[in-house]
Amino acid sequence: MYCRNENDRTICEIETQQKIIIRDICSDDIDRLRLFSCGNESMNNYIHREALLNHVLGEGITRVVLDENGKDIIAYFTLKCTSIKFEDPEMGDEEREIPCVEISRLAVCLSWQNGTNGFHLGTSLVGYIISTIKEEIASRVGCRWITIHAVQERIKWYREQFNFDYIIDDTPDEFGTVSMFLDISNLEAYRKICGQLESIK
Q1: Closest by CA position to 57, among listed 84, 73, 78, 34
Q2: Could you give the number of structural domains in the chain?
Q3: pLDDT tens digit sequence for 158-167
Q4: CATH number, residue 156
């Protein structure tokens, strides 16, 4: 998926020669938000009722994905800042607070799921999100992990397609999701600098 920025939106060309539009959610979307359906009640309720409010408050930035005509919302995702306390033996004995960007929502409408339009939109969107976090967020603001709360049927997909791992283990929480992370830090550079500092002592 090749993407380019145009003003306040991103235009992406997909393998089927179609184009999709990615942009921030806005008040003009209210009517079309209610038409979105992905087959998951929680994801539907969020974009119908909460996404725009949280976006305006800055509690979760939601971007909608539209078809090439800019008419229908075919997917959306929400990102927010978070942190996780974690023991990392490589970095000392004390618990560390890891700065993260969380993919708190990601949903694709039913008519675009499972490659039904000749294109796996969800897979491409996760790749796009990871690249955006690495290039536009983590390069300017401290962010070591990308985190998600994966539904159980998507755990294997996140592990195999994108190298996410369990934060603790594969035990689901009270919502039936499993906390996972992707480490986007440069551990090789970290180890090299540690070695250089040790040699100075």
Answers
A1: 78
A2: 1
A3: 999 999 999 9
A4: 3.40.630.30
Both structure tokens of 62: 């939601």
What is the DSSP annotation of 115-140? GTTSS-HHHHHHHHHHHHIIIIITTT
Inter-residue contact 48 to 41 (CB < 8 Å): no
Beta-ladder partners of 113: none
**Domain housing 169:** 2-200
3 Cβ neighbours under 8 A, 6+ residues apart: 10, 11, 12, 13, 22, 128
pLDDT digits (tens, 9 = 90+) for 127-167: 999 999 998 998 899 899 999 999 888 999 999 999 999 99
Tokens coding 28: 């003009």
User: Cβ distance 178 to 172 under 8 Å?
Assistant: yes
